[in-house]
Amino acid sequence: MTTESEINDGPIWLEADRKKLHRAISNVIDNSLKHMDKKERKLEIGLRVEGEGVEIRISDNGPGIPPDALPFVFERFYRAEPSRNSNTGGSGLGLAIVKQIIEEHGGTVTVKSTQGQGTHIYFKLPKMTSRKGETT
Fold it and tell me: Does pTM top 0.85 for this prediction?
């Protein structure tokens, strides 16, 4: 696993439920690891400031998601490949939960994927303008 950050100007503050945000990130990582099909498995996590928010990117080198399935991956109980997901114990709720958590935090989640090359999941979360108890 590799990480990269494009944040060089000190800390960035988010107002977030730590447990829920951890669950969203864990769901994406678990999904990535569960479906990786290459001998050399790669998982990358990136962080950068994006306008008034922060973007978290989780990328893998797994099998990718078919283009016709991409619009539906965040829907409850949707499985891009039902036969494989039932073998791995997936319920079809993981990415739907991710979307719900990120949207509860005022953010958005998107996906880009290329079959045979991997998938990128992007969370965009709003930055706090100041920490509680501080003045700007």
Answer: no
DSSP symbols for 49-99: EETTEEEEEEEE-S----TTTGGGTTSTT--SSHHHHHHHT--S-HHHHHH
Give the whole-angstrom CA distance, residue 35 versus residue 120: 13
pLDDT digits (tens, 9 = 90+) for 58-97: 999 999 989 998 888 888 755 555 444 444 455 456 889 9
Assigned token pair, 60: 């893998």
How many angstroms separate the first and last alpha carbons of the chain?
Answer: 37
**Domains and their CATH numbers in the chain:** 2-7+14-126 (3.30.565.10)
Q: In this structure, how many other beta carbons lie within 10 angstroms of the beta carbon of residue 118?
A: 21
Question: In terms of C-beta density within 10 A (0-12 exposed, 13-18 middle, 19 or more buried), how is residue 69 classed?
Answer: middle
- For residues 123 and 115, what is the distance between their CA atoms, to the nearest angstrom? 21
Q: Write out the two tokens for 26.
A: 């864990």
SS3 124: strand
Residue owning tokens 């000190």: 10
